[in-house]
Specification:
With about 210 residues, this protein is α+β, with helices and mostly antiparallel strands. The protein contains 9 helices and 6 strands, in the order βαββααβαααααββα. It has a single domain, classed as Glutaredoxin, CATH 3.40.30.
């Protein structure tokens, strides 16, 4: 079975959904390949800009109580063992981070790179549109050639193709999970929902 997951590095629900999928897979006794695909929640955010998340949320939503906006998701993340740190989180454009993840996929480290980027963004307060930061994070998971990959526009088409394909499949946001191109799960659903989808996909698979 193959599961494709469209996800954005700055998306807290994507990290929560990742953990819930992993919980479901832990009790699933069949081989599963998981491929992480690129998506951008805000492709219009300037690629050379980095501002504190609270400031960015206030600008985007015009809300004064931005800390209250993040409290619920932070509590849900704690249940999944994730300790989000919005006090130090930085809002950036994730296009280059996705290009790095595409590069990592060529070395069969796409999943590891995506996990490292999510953690860097949501837990560690790293600035994941900075080339030096991205190179250091790639070294953490054993990805070679990151600096060269981030030079110029390499993997731009791969990121754009992923985003286009998500739209064609009906995704309006992320996380978006597709099982064997037959079943879709939208959002960070409970692990039980993923378990049910896994069972349905298995039952529908050719004998």
């Amino acid at each position: 079975m193959k599961i494709e997951v469209w996800s954005d590095i700055v998306c807290p629900w994507c990290y929560i959904g990742k953990r819930r999928l992993e919980s479901a897979l832990a009790g699933f006794e069949h081989p599963v390949e998981v491929e992480w695909r690129s998506f951008q929640l805000d492709p219009t955010f300037p690629r050379d800009k980095a501002i504190p998340v609270y400031e960015g949320l206030a600008q985007k939503f015009g809300a004064s109580d931005v800390r209250g906006m993040t409290e619920h998701v932070t509590q849900l993340a704690e249940v999944e063992g994730l300790h989000f740190d919005y006090d130090h989180a930085v809002m950036v454009n994730t296009f280059d981070a996705h290009r790095l993840a595409q590069h990592a996929k060529t070395q069969n480290l796409g999943g590891e790179m995506h996990e490292r980027l999510l953690r860097a963004q949501l837990v560690e307060g790293e600035t994941v549109n900075d080339v030096e930061t991205l190179v250091r994070l790639s070294e953490d998971v054993g990805v070679d050639g990151a600096r060269e990959a981030l030079t110029g526009d390499r993997y731009t088409a791969d990121v754009e193709d992923d985003i286009r394909e998500a739209r064609l499949l009906g995704a309006t946001g992320v996380p978006f999970f597709v099982l064997d191109r037959k079943f879709g799960v939208s959002g960070a659903q409970p692990a039980e929902v993923f378990s049910s989808a896994l069972s349905q996909a298995l039952a529908a698979a050719p004998a």
